[in-house]
Amino acid sequence: MNVTPGATAGHGAASITLEGIRKRYPDGTEAVRELSLEVKAGELVVLIGPSGCGKSTVLRMINRLIEPTDGRILLGDDDVTRVDPVALRRRIGYVIQNVGLFPHQTVAANVATVPGLLRWPRQRTRDRVHELLELVGLDPGQFGHRYPHELSGGQRQRVGVARALAADPVVLLMDEPFSAVDPIVRTRLQEEFLRLQAEVRKTIVLVTHDLDEAVRLGDRIAVLSEGGRLEQYDAPAALLGSPASPFVREFVGADRGIRRLAVTPVTHEVLDPLPAGDTVDLPAVALGGSAYDALGALLTSSAEHAVVTEDGRPVGVLSRSRLLGLGASAD
Ligand SMILES: Nc1ncnc2c1ncn2[C@@H]1O[C@H](COP(=O)(O)OP(=O)(O)OP(=O)(O)O)[C@@H](O)[C@H]1O
């Protein structure tokens, strides 16, 4: 989505600041040695890195499911290590891999969990549940009375997101939220989630193993290595285009050129002038669309150029070589 973070933060979204946080588990494991990171209000930041590098530990320190050994965590200007953890968790939505819905409660009751704890009036809760189910694409009349086992994996995941958003939290933490569903459903949920985020503009920290998911969802991506070491913190295109270390280069992999195309828009700068004569036989792509889609259009034709249109009118052509140049890394 890559919108300017902060500028359009949703109502009540708060920045998150991690200052030199450390976690040493009682058995001596140094899960996070020293990490500082700032997430702007309304920004979606993805934490990614190899298994065991400390991603979940970092996430759970933000809502104090795990207490940091050292360092400070601020939500806006509030130091979360100084507030009551239960009150804190009501201000922070939390979505986990298998959602953790209460099996013996209906969908509506699940979504109403935090409003119930906050003792909202019944009608306000009912209205909010209705609004949220619609927001996540579930018809409240059809799904509100079902139980979790009567839903598909993707539907359960949506209920999990609706529940996390119910009391309008200032921050949303998501630990592998889409990994339990199959790849096709996952892609659809990711797209819907981006639409939802464009509407609510929460500050979100999302943990994933999946680089494609990170690139698709993140305004910025934090790549961590063992011990919660921050290897690079950048927008997806910058991360893929200029990996900051051999670790990151290896982590983002050899196919990062292709991934980079997915986050690079076709702009006026890369166009050549329209050739004389007819361009109707050339594949057409829209200005502002992704270079990856343009590559797809070129690969399914034998043409050397795609014609680029703006508001339906041709404004130039994009050559194969220019297109492939867009995927080449800057290093
Ligand atoms: N309760 C605990 N006691 C001791 N060590 C722990 C505990 N929980 C996690 N660890 C260790 O801390 C390190 C970081 O774990 P964490 O779950 O944060 O990593 P992760 O990056 O989220 O991993 P994954 O991607 O596999 O979920 C690992 O070495 C793990 O074994």
TrEMBL record:
Q: What class of enzyme is it?
A: translocase
Q: Name one Pfam family in it.
A: ABC_tran
Record keyword Chloroplast present? no
Gene Ontology terms, MF aspect: ABC-type quaternary ammonium compound transporting activity; ATP binding; ATP hydrolysis activity
Which EC numbers does the record give? Answer: 7.6.2.9
Indicate the segments forming the ABC transporter domain, all copies.
Answer: 16-252
Checking PROSITE patterns in the record gives:
ABC_TRANSPORTER_1, ABC_TRANSPORTER_2
Note the InterPro entries from the entry. Answer: AAA+_ATPase (IPR003593), ABC_transporter-like_ATP-bd (IPR003439), ABC_transporter-like_CS (IPR017871), P-loop_NTPase (IPR027417)
**Which Gene3D superfamilies has this protein been placed in?**
P-loop containing nucleotide triphosphate hydrolases
Question: PANTHER family, per this entry?
Answer: OSMOPROTECTANT IMPORT ATP-BINDING PROTEIN OSMV
User: What family is reported?
Assistant: Belongs to the ABC transporter superfamily.
Q: What is this protein called?
A: ABC-type quaternary amine transporter
